[in-house]
Write a structure and sequence with these properties.
Strand order of the largest sheet: 1-10-12-11-13-18-16-17
Helix content: 25-40%
Radius of gyration: 23 Å
Shape: elongated
Structural class: alpha/beta
Number of helices: 14
Largest sheet: 8 strands, mixed
Length: 536
C-alpha cells in the first residue's frame, strides 16, 4: 500500500488554541521549605467574585443543557492563555506542538482546573465542608522536546512530537544515534532488529491510552536493556494526530527517553531507518513535596444518615483539550451537585450523605480516586458513582487513515457495574434507554475489567461508571465538537435517575449485596489518604 503523505502544516485546532498566546508564562505553585504541599486558600467571603452566594449565570434546567454549559466553562479555563504555563517555544506558529495547552498534572493549568472545580462547589448553596486536599505526587516538567533526522541531501526532517512522560529524559542537547525500525515492537520484531545499542528505535503501536495494553511498554523496556539511547513511538491515531499515553507513576520513572509521533510521520520515519537522529526530552522530575503535588476536592451534602456516603466523582486532569474525554464528566458532576442541592431545598434532607469529588493525577494513573475513598473510609461508602471518559463522544471510522463521522455515538464505551444484584437492577433500569439507543455496552466490574473505577472496586465498594475511548481522546483535536449534546442529555438524565434510585435504597443492603464483587476485588492499588479531612 502506498505511503500516506505526512502533514507538515499546523492543524487548525492548534491555530485556534494558540490565538492570543504571546507570552511564555511561569507556573505559580505555592511551596516553601516544608515537604508538605500547600493547600489552596478558601474563597474570601468578602470578595463578590468568589462569594459562595453569587451562584451561577447558568440556570439549573434540563440535565443535558445544564451539564453542557458547565463543561463549556471548564473547557474555557483550559484554552485560556493566561492559565497556560508550558508553552516551550518562542515560535508557536512553527513549533505548535511545543505549545499545546492541557490540564496536565502538576502544571500551572493542571492546578488551575482544580481551583476552578472547587470554586464551582462553593457556588452551590447547601454544600458543606468544601475543601481542597493536595497530595504529594511526582511531576514531570518538560523544558524542551524535539526530534531531528538528517537526510541524505543534507537537509533535516523535524516532525511534530510529544514526550511520553516519565519514560526517560535526555541532557539539554539530547542524544544522537541511527534510527532502527522495530516494526510493531513485538517479540519477533525485536529478535529481527539486530543490535540496537547506541541507536534510536522506532516502532508503531495501536491507538491505546495505556502502553501495557498492547505491549508497547515491553518493547521500550527491552530496548533500554539492549542499550538503545532513545525511542520513538508512532501511535495509530486519527490522521496524523499526536496521541499522548498514560503512565503508571506507581512503577517509578524509566530510563529510555521516548517521543510520540503521529501515524503519518511515523511512516516517514520508518522510511528513514539508518539515518542519524537527534532526540531531545529535556525535563525535570519533581519529587513529591512542595513542587510535586496534585489535588482532590470534596463537597458534602449532609443527609439524615451522616455515617453512610454516596460518592459521585470524576477526574479533572488530562493531556490536552479533553473536550469529549473529561468535559462531560465535569459538567455532569456539577449538574448533579446542583440538582441534589435543589432537591434538598425543595424536599428536605436526603436519606444519607452525598459526597461530590473532583480527583487529580488521573492521566498519570495516580488515582486520586483511591485517596478520596481512603480518606472517607471505604466501609462508610455505600456506592461510588463515576462520571468517566467518553460519556457523549461522537463515533468515527477511519478511511485511508482519515477520520469520518458515523453519525452515531462512539462504540468504545461501556457501563461497568460491580457484580451486585441491587446495584445492577437500579443501574440497568436508569440507563435502559441509553443502552438501547446508544449501543452502550454493559460489563460486569470484575478484577480484570474495572474500567476507570479500579480503585473503588478494589476497595470492595459497590461501583458503577461509564468508561470509554473516543477516537480523539488524548489528542489536541479532542475539542468540544467531538461530543454531542444529543448523546449527553440522556446519559446525564440516566445518572440523575440512578442517583435518585440509590438514595431510596438502603445503604447497608447495597453493601451486603456486594459479596461476589468483594470476592473478585483483589488488592487495592496502594495509595493512602494524604491527611485528615472534615466530614459532616
Amino acid at each position: 500500500m502506498a505511503r500516506r503523505t505526512p502533514r507538515a502544516r499546523r492543524p487548525l485546532h492548534a491555530t485556534a488554541m494558540l490565538l492570543g498566546l504571546l507570552l511564555v508564562l511561569t507556573a505559580c505553585v505555592d511551596g516553601g521549605g516544608d515537604a508538605t504541599p500547600v493547600a489552596n486558600e478558601p474563597a474570601d467571603p468578602t470578595d463578590p467574585t468568589e462569594s459562595p452566594t453569587t451562584g451561577f449565570e447558568i440556570p439549573l434546567g434540563e440535565p443535558g443543557p445544564t451539564a453542557y454549559a458547565h463543561l463549556q466553562a471548564y473547557l474555557d479555563v483550559i484554552v485560556e492563555p493566561a492559565h497556560f504555563d508550558e508553552c516551550l517555544t518562542t515560535d508557536p506558529d512553527t513549533e505548535w506542538y511545543k505549545c499545546l495547552p492541557g490540564p496536565r498534572t502538576g502544571s500551572g493549568l493542571g492546578h488551575q482546573v482544580h481551583r476552578w472545580a472547587a470554586d464551582q462547589f462553593r457556588r452551590i448553596d447547601g454544600l458543606e465542608h468544601i475543601q481542597e486536599q493536595p497530595f504529594g505526587f511526582p511531576i514531570f516538567k518538560p523544558r524542551n522536546y524535539e526530534l531531528t533526522v538528517s537526510l541524505a541531501d543534507g537537509s533535516t526532517y523535524r516532525p511534530a512530537v510529544f514526550p511520553w512522560y516519565f519514560q526517560g529524559v535526555t541532557p539539554p542537547q539530547g542524544v544522537s544515534g541511527d534510527l532502527v525500525d522495530l516494526g510493531g515492537g513485538s517479540l519477533l520484531d525485536r529478535l529481527a532488529a539486530g543490535d540496537v545499542s547506541g541507536k534510536v528505535i522506532i516502532f508503531t503501536a495501536r491507538q491505546v491510552l495505556n502502553a501495557a495494553t498492547v505491549g508497547a511498554q515491553q518493547a521500550l523496556d527491552w530496548a533500554a536493556e539492549q542499550g538503545a539511547i532513545g525511542a520513538i513511538v508512532a501511535v495509530e491515531g486519527p490522521s496524523n494526530e499526536l496521541v499522548a499515553q498514560n503512565y503508571n507513576t506507581f512503577e517509578g520513572p524509566r530510563s529510555l527517553p521516548t517521543l510520540i509521533v503521529g501515524e503519518f510521520d511515523g511512516q516517514r520515519l520508518v522510511e528513514l531507518a539508518g539515518q542519524p537522529a537527534q532526540l531531545v526530552v529535556d525535563a525535570d522530575i519533581a519529587e513529591p513535596g512542595p513542587d510535586g503535588y496534585s489535588s482532590n476536592s470534596y463537597a458534602f451534602l449532609p443527609g439524615v444518615n451522616r455515617d453512610q456516603f454516596l460518592v459521585i466523582g470524576t477526574p479533572v486532569n488530562g493531556w490536552f483539550t479533553v473536550g469529549s474525554e473529561r468535559g462531560p464528566g465535569v459538567g455532569g458532576l456539577i449538574y448533579l451537585a446542583r440538582y441534589l442541592a435543589d432537591r434538598v431545598r425543595r424536599e428536605g434532607p436526603l436519606p444519607y450523605t452525598v459526597v461530590f469529588t473532583f480527583t487529580g493525577a488521573h492521566e498519570m494513573m495516580g488515582f486520586g480516586q483511591e485517596r478520596v475513598l481512603q480518606c472517607l473510609g471505604p466501609e462508610r461508602v455505600a456506592t461510588y458513582v463515576h462520571l468517566g471518559a467518553g460519556l457523549a463522544s461522537r463515533g468515527y471510522i477511519e478511511r485511508q487513515g482519515e477520520p469520518m463521522p458515523t453519525g452515531l455515538p462512539a462504540t468504545q464505551r461501556a457501563l461497568v457495574i460491580s457484580e451486585n444484584p441491587l446495584l445492577e437492577t437500579a443501574t440497568l433500569a436508569a440507563f435502559a434507554d441509553v443502552i438501547a439507543t446508544q449501543a452502550l455496552t454493559v460489563s460486569p466490574g470484575g478484577v480484570f475489567n474495572p474500567g476507570e473505577t479500579q480503585a473503588a472496586y478494589a476497595l470492595q465498594i459497590p461501583t458503577l461508571g461509564i468508561s470509554g475511548a473516543g477516537l480523539f481522546h488524548h489528542s489536541p483535536a479532542d475539542t468540544i465538537d467531538k461530543l454531542s449534546l444529543d448523546y449527553l442529555a440522556p446519559v446525564i438524565e440516566s445518572y440523575r435517575d440512578l442517583v435518585d434510585r440509590l438514595l431510596d435504597s438502603d445503604p447497608n443492603s447495597l453493601r451486603n449485596a456486594n459479596a461476589v464483587a468483594d470476592a473478585l476485588a483483589g488488592d487495592p492499588i496502594g495509595y493512602s489518604c494524604p491527611g485528615p479531612i472534615t466530614t459532616p
